[in-house]
Amino acid sequence: MAATSKATRDQSHARVFDLDVMSLRELNQALHNLTPGSNETAWEVLNPKGNHSVAVGVDQPVTIDVRGSVGYYCGGMNDGATITVHGSAGPGVGENMMSGSIIIKGDASQYAGATGKGGLLVIEGNASSRCGISMKGIDIVVRGNIGHMSAFMAQSGNLVVLGDAGDALGDSIYEARLFVRGKVDSLGADCIAKEMRPEHLELLQGLLDRAGVTGIKPTEFKRYGSARTLYNFNIDNADAY
Amino acid sequence: MTYKNPPTTPRKSATFDDYTLSEIRRAAATGIYDIRGGGAKRKLPHFDDLLFLGASISRYPLEGYRERCDTSVVLGSRHAKKPIELKIPITIAGMSFGSLSGPAKEALGRGATLAGTSTTTGDGGMTEEERGHSKTLVYQYLPSRYGMNPRDLRRADAIEVVVGQGAKPGGGGMLLGQKISDRVAEMRTLPKGIDQRSASRHPDWTGPDDLEIKILELREITDWEKPIYVKVGGARPYYDTALAVKAGADVVVVDGMQGGTAATQEVFIENVGQPTLACIRPAVQALQDLGMHRKVQLIVSGGIRNGADVAKALALGVDAVSIGTAALVALGDNDPRWEAEYNELGTTAGAYDDWHEGRDPAGITTQDPELMKRIDPVAAGRRLANYLKVMTLEAQTIARACGKNSLHNLEPEDLVALTIEAAAMAGVPLAGTNWIPGKNGF
Questions:
Q1: How much is the ipTM here?
Q2: Do B149 and A174 lie within an 8 Å CB cutoff?
Q3: Domains, in order of start, for chain B
Q4: How many independent structural domains does chain A possess?
């Protein structure tokens, strides 16, 4: 296949894909062609230049280093790969991730980790609005701040924010856990501050460790989650919506 | 002798009719809007308001039962490496596991496969019952993304990006606590027993430009193999169709207001969206204006009941129709055999629409293990296949009478309308005239 013959290897034996030379289609097809046990476990993508859908739908435990910034949906539906973006990410990075991890060295745009079912998304800069929207099991760690309406309708998983959160955090939240170290501009409908119990401190320490965060204690965070008052419709709660 | 004034006959208001009065009393007693399943129940201009002309001196017919009349259709030939080929132009619309029982989903798969057509998942993910029994399965990509995962995406035969549906354009799904069983809760990553309200908007894109990027992502994940449908409710069919085409859709699905839902507010169902008949010509016009008619396929749904409806929709320019409510009736929904139980629920066979309550006597719109035993997936699937075959034969009968050797050769010129409204909506002449309201400036 053309994709294989055109790919080159650097000295560390990573397979290098230069998106200035090869197409996005060739890159994703080569990643999808990987089979369990393949020895092509290290990949490097050059010149992403804001391309959309870089390394989407990967289902093997390979590492992919993307050298530059990406457009929409980088690592979408990732299932097992470790993807590092050495730049910033456009909207929907890691959307619907199943497993594996995605690390963004820069900032992330809207909807980071939307509907993610599993795995770990680390954003070393800031994340924009609707971070973790509708999350369903993913763990998200943001070193900077997050924008408004984050964790909207978040169902499960954990969102950790070392900085501040914008307005309407956790609006209509279900069972996801939110940990914010800085200030929260406002909480959304049915989202409340909750007691940080020992099991939460332990959970949070584990998340910080997995994200490679050091020098910050779980006790510096506040926990937020669902008041569960909107779980079954009650007309007397209609003003909350 | 005293004169007695003659009384007038008691007269009920046409505005405040019995149903309206009962709804006011219900609202006053409960303080919550009425929720129900199904589509618009009000009288609307529909396919019944159209007639075929048949053959005459200027057109000659094909021999019924003898001369071939093709019914097959290919969906997704624009971009997909593996388009779908169906034997009949009637597909089964998306209905969720959760709203429907597992055996009902299995029956839909069995019936559709026997008849040579596809079924569609719904707002609850893909079940083994349906994947296992449906040869051609369309996997819906919904705002809630319940159960969405790349493995199911790859084992689907097509992907349908759902923007809206005819019963509630602009509304999200709803599944009340009674139906959130352990299995449904697990598939949706939700606590058991809560009232589940799906999002009305997709979480990671808004507008046609984002949709184009989203479709690119889905194509990349599935290596450009699967046809990608975009489904919209019958709101602005001309622009929605044009924008879906622009965004890269292989197939556009337009669902009129008679199209059913598992549950939403009555006020939404009856007052938002356009009738199916009013949606078809604008959608076809959009495709024609873009030079994409027959290149991007158009599926229309909402109130399709028989082969005449199929033939009329195809004559107006659609490539296939989709059925939901009618398919459920073929499985056994609202069957008079359960009349005593419908009465206990305060309703009658034919009117039962409290599908969200999960107490369906027919075992279809329920998650109750005892009730769902009442539906035999094999027998119900057979009934659905029979029904689909009858619809197809009926449509062929009409097409042959119009001299067409393919259902897709039917054309607007084969039709007239019985009412001015239908003539205007369908863009065909009022019967007995050459007048198409709205054409030529009057």
A1: 0.93
A2: no
A3: 50-400 (3.20.20.70), 411-442 (no CATH)
A4: 1
